[in-house]
Amino acid sequence: MTITPDTKDWTWVLRRPCPDCGLDTSRLRPEDVPTLLRANATAWRDVLADGDPRPRPRPDRWSPIEYACHVRDVCRVFADRLHLMLTEDQPHFPNWDQDATALADRYADQDPAVVAAELIDAAEHLAVRFAQVSGSQWERPGRRSDGAHFTVGTLARYFIHDPVHHLFDVTGREQSAHAAR
């Protein structure tokens, strides 16, 4: 069995807690995202160092290495989106097909140590970029290819759900939003 592509609109995480991972982004300040992201990246490094992260727990679920590659790439994509929002007026984000990327980049075959280092670097780069945002920059708008509208602040809160949720997918443990404070 293969992975079924995820076509859900996850923007609902901006309005209510996630029933799976428990994160309530509506209670987060965008300024909390860098700290949460750094803690999350450290946890991924630990996951990838703990045994063989390549086997899938089920045929229809990604392995830890595949999730880690996805989180690394999500950090990179959102760094690009944040840059667009801060440098252009109301940018329209290019589409990103995460499932096609996973196949094309052969996530399952990547080296865990390399992925861990790349994930830490991508997360730190994005954390620094979010930490530099201030004042009215949090309200700068942008929109996704499906028409979903974001401000820099909602983009930050929407983004952080992804790595937190996927860490929960792999470990079954919730990441406390209190780690940010």
Secondary structure elements and pairings:
Blueprint (H helix, E strand, L loop, with lengths): L32 H17 L14 H24 L10 H7 L7 H20 L9 E3 L5 E3 H20 L10
Antiparallel strand pairs: 1-2
Mean pLDDT: 92
Rg (C-alpha, Å):
16 Å
* Beginning-to-end CA distance, first to last residue: 42 Å
Largest sheet: 2 strands, antiparallel
Total number of strands: 2
Count of DSSP H/I helices: 5
Gross morphology: globular
Strand arrangement within the widest β-sheet reads 1-2
Query: Which spans have pLDDT < 50 for at least 5 consecutive residues?
Result: none
Report strand %: under 5%
The oligomeric state is: single chain
Helix content: 40-55%
Structural class: mainly alpha
Q: What pattern of helices and strands is seen along the backbone?
A: HHHHEEH
Task: Quickly list its features.
single chain, 181 residues, mainly alpha, 2 strands, 3% strand, globular
Kindly describe this structure.
The chain has a two-stranded antiparallel sheet. The mean pLDDT is 92. The chain is mainly α. It is built from five helices and two strands, in the order H-H-H-H-E-E-H. Helix 1 runs parallel beside helix 5.
What is this structure, in a nutshell?
With 181 residues, this protein is mainly alpha-helical. It is built from 5 helices and 2 strands; from the N terminus they run ααααββα. α1 (33-49) packs antiparallel against α4 and α2 (64-87) packs parallel to α4 (112-131).
